[in-house]
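Notes taken during the Thursday session

The instructor put the following on the board and asked us to keep it in front of us for the whole hour. The protein is Dehydrogenase. We were told not to look anything up and to reason only from what is written here. First, the residues (266 in total):
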Amino acid sequence: MPLPQLLVGKVAAITGGLTGIGRAITLEYLRHGAKVAINHLGGSSEEPLLESMRKDVAEIIGTEDRFLAVAGDISQPETGQDFISKTVAAFGQLNVFVSNAGVCKFAEFLEVEPALLGHTISTNLSGAFYATQAAARQMALSQSPSGGSIIGISSISALVGGGQQTHYTPTKAGVLSLMQSCAVSLGKYGIRCNALLPGTIRTQLNDEDMSDPSKRAYMEGRIPLGRLGQTSDMAGPAVFLACEELSGYVTGAQLLVDGGLFVNLQ
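Then, after some discussion, the predicted structure tokens were revealed:
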């Protein structure tokens, strides 16, 4: 028996929706009946990824009439506004926004250069801020009875330290804080703002790091569920937070999706 579609009639916009967690959430939202627009960086290197995405979209919905891809560098302040404008132009409204785009390059603290720090902050935090602001402005303007749902993809790294992530962890702590503050600021519009905190999820960002068998075994040994996370593990929680009927009184929350890793860290 097919599962019920929980997002029929909803329009969602997802940054960084072409790969990793954003891709998994995009496809799951489509399965649940939503119209989905994704932001991606663009460029010739992403053409194979976009072609693959379109094939998967077609397998789910048969056509691309509920899917839109918009290229743009999310670290630029104008990109978020352009993305939201094109989403609304295509689908008429905006109900769900997922701030997912991010970068993570491992580096020793003493070796972090200003360019790496600046790029990480401008993408992970400034980009999240501007795109979230653009989405919130649209949601507030629409005066929808259900307000809207904004989901920030933070990280378990917002709560714990990482020796090679000193430039990264503060940005993810910032995304968590941004969602908490936006929950307070936007509650009067009925807009709910929550953060998802993935643990160790196998994506293109950590694939090289997790390809080391000994390191992967070490990480799996620390996770109570005994395995690394898959991008699909993030999709269900993202549907939950997007669905008014399931999470209509949830805002300012942080949801760990980590297989129990955080509670087992000692």
